[in-house]
Write a structure and sequence with these properties.
Elements (H helix, E strand, L loop, with lengths): L2 E8 L5 E9 L13 E6 L8 E11 L2 E12 L2 E6 L8
Length: 92
């Protein structure tokens, strides 16, 4: 959820962005379906370095059932904390 970015990115109009020891996040999905409704939030710019937070809430389809599920990952002080529908955590 947090890696260092160095390099340049040039758009079609020739404008160049320069990245020097910036923070990045990369994700991919090779699946063939995607939730009908979802929200994704990602933050990794905190006063404490190496602190990252990711939260996703989505409509989950499971066979003929559909429900709202969530996944939250917090990396803080070298420890990982996971809050998710599958481990019984709740959003209130």
């Amino acid at each position: 959820m947090h890696h260092q970015v160095n390099g340049t990115l040039t758009d079609a109009s020739g404008h160049t962005l320069i990245f020097k020891q910036d923070h990045g996040y990369l994700e991919k999905d090779w699946g063939h379906s995607f939730p009908e409704k979802y929200i994704w939030a990602q933050a990794n710019h905190f006063p404490k370095k190496q602190t990252n937070l990711m939260l996703s809430v989505a409509t989950i389809s499971l066979f003929k059932l559909s429900f709202i599920g969530h996944l939250c990952h917090l990396h803080l002080d070298g420890k990982d904390y996971r809050f998710a529908t599958y481990n019984g955590s709740k959003i209130t």
